[in-house]
Q: What sequence folds into this?
């Protein structure tokens, strides 16, 4: 079966760093994605990892360990506008299809 | 560059009524996806098109749902008849041949079935 787990909710303080974890068990692996979704809006692409290691993009970084079925999204210098849901998604096998986790709702407080 | 366009943005209908959603993908994107997102959940793929061909519709409830992408551009998703459990956000996404790994989502249609 396909299973993607991530925490339901997290809270953090403005200016701080937060790490959102994602573990997955899928039949095949061809990439892991992170999307940001503000309430009532469309998911927007944040990052893509297909090889092990850390990918950095400004304040956001994403890490992947394929042997552990594990990824995290690291958000630095948190801003109030980072309050959103963060969706972890896996592309299994060679199919251009994404399987999403339920999302982690992040609340950033002053 | 215009993003993925969807209409309507909101729809309220009574159960057993039909409903249709329309999607216009980003220009030049050959792959189009329809997802359903229930409250507090991630999107779930309903159907994927490569140009005008439906290449993955395994998650589409075919007894009441149908979709088409006749000219390989715009797409329509229909539900007939709608049930209470169909209340959700229906998202359309598209991706290009050159960058298949990145899907761009539209704003979605929020459906409420009463």
A:
């Amino acid at each position: 079966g396909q299973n993607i787990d991530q925490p339901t909710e997290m809270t953090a303080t403005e200016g701080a760093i937060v790490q959102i974890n994602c573990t997955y068990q899928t039949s095949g692996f061809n990439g892991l994605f992170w999307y940001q979704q503000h309430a009532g809006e469309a998911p927007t692409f944040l990052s893509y990892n297909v090889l092990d290691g850390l990918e950095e993009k400004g304040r956001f970084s994403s890490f992947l360990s394929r042997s552990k079925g594990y990824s995290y999204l690291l958000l630095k210098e948190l801003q109030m506008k980072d309050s959103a849901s963060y969706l972890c998604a896996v592309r299994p096998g060679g199919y251009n299809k994404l399987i999403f986790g339920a999302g982690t709702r992040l609340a950033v407080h002053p | 560059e215009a993003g993925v366009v969807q209409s309507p943005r909101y729809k309220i209908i009574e159960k057993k009524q039909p409903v249709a959603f329309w999607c216009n993908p980003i220009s030049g994107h050959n792959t189009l996806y329809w997802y359903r997102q229930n409250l507090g959940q991630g999107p779930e793929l309903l159907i994927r098109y490569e140009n005008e061909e439906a290449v993955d519709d395994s998650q589409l409830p075919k007894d009441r749902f149908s979709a088409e992408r006749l000219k390989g551009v715009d797409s329509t998703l229909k539900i007939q008849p709608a049930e209470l459990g169909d209340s959700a956000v229906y998202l359309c996404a598209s991706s290009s041949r050159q960058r298949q790994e990145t899907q761009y989502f539209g704003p979605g249609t929020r459906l409420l079935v009463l």
